[in-house]
């Protein structure tokens, strides 16, 4: 497709907003319900976070993958500690919500 870049960007933004608009229409623009759906989406993202953070730390600490750009040992340990704390807090938050 030979379209100007600004048309492609607008098209992708509109395509990304379609699910949000459909959900808003289905729930009748009820602010309380939409706020609750927003919270649930953030809870889902917090659950998905460890599945991306732990592999990221693991791969960036391997010399065979990163070469000279490998994380320092202290950086890797700090990353795992912070990720573990965030995961525990997210699990606690999940149990507090439900």
Helix vs. strand class: mainly alpha
Reported for the largest beta sheet, the result is: none
Helix content range: over 70%
Amino-to-carboxy terminus distance: 47 Å
Which oligomeric form is depicted?
single chain
Global shape: flat
Rounded to an integer in angstroms, the radius of gyration calculated over CA atoms is 20 Å
Helix-strand topology string: HHHH
Compute the number of helices: 4
Give the averaged pLDDT, no decimals. 89
The tally of strands reads 0
Low-confidence parts: none
Describe the 3D structure.
The protein has 98 residues and is an all-alpha fold. Helix content is 83%, strand content 0%. The chain has 4 helices and no strands. The radius of gyration is 20 Å and the shape is flat. The N and C termini lie far apart (47 Å). The model has no long low-confidence stretch (mean pLDDT 89).
SSE inventory with pairings:
Layout: H1 5-26, H2 31-60, H3 63-66, H4 73-97
Helix pairs in contact: 2-4
List keywords for this structure.
flat; 98 residues; 4 helices; mainly alpha
Short recap of the structure:
This protein is 83% helix and 0% strand. The protein has 98 residues and is mainly α.
């Amino acid at each position: 497709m030979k379209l100007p870049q600004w048309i492609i960007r607008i098209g992708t933004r509109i395509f990304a907003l379609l699910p949000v608009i459909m959900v808003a229409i289905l729930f009748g623009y009820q602010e309380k319900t939409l706020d609750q759906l927003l919270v649930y989406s953030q809870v889902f993202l917090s659950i998905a976070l460890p599945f991306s953070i732990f592999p990221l730390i693991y791969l960036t600490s391997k010399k065979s993958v990163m070469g000279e750009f490998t994380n320092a040992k202290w950086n890797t340990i700090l990353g795992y500690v912070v990720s573990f704390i965030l995961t525990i807090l997210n699990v606690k938050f999940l149990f507090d919500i439900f």
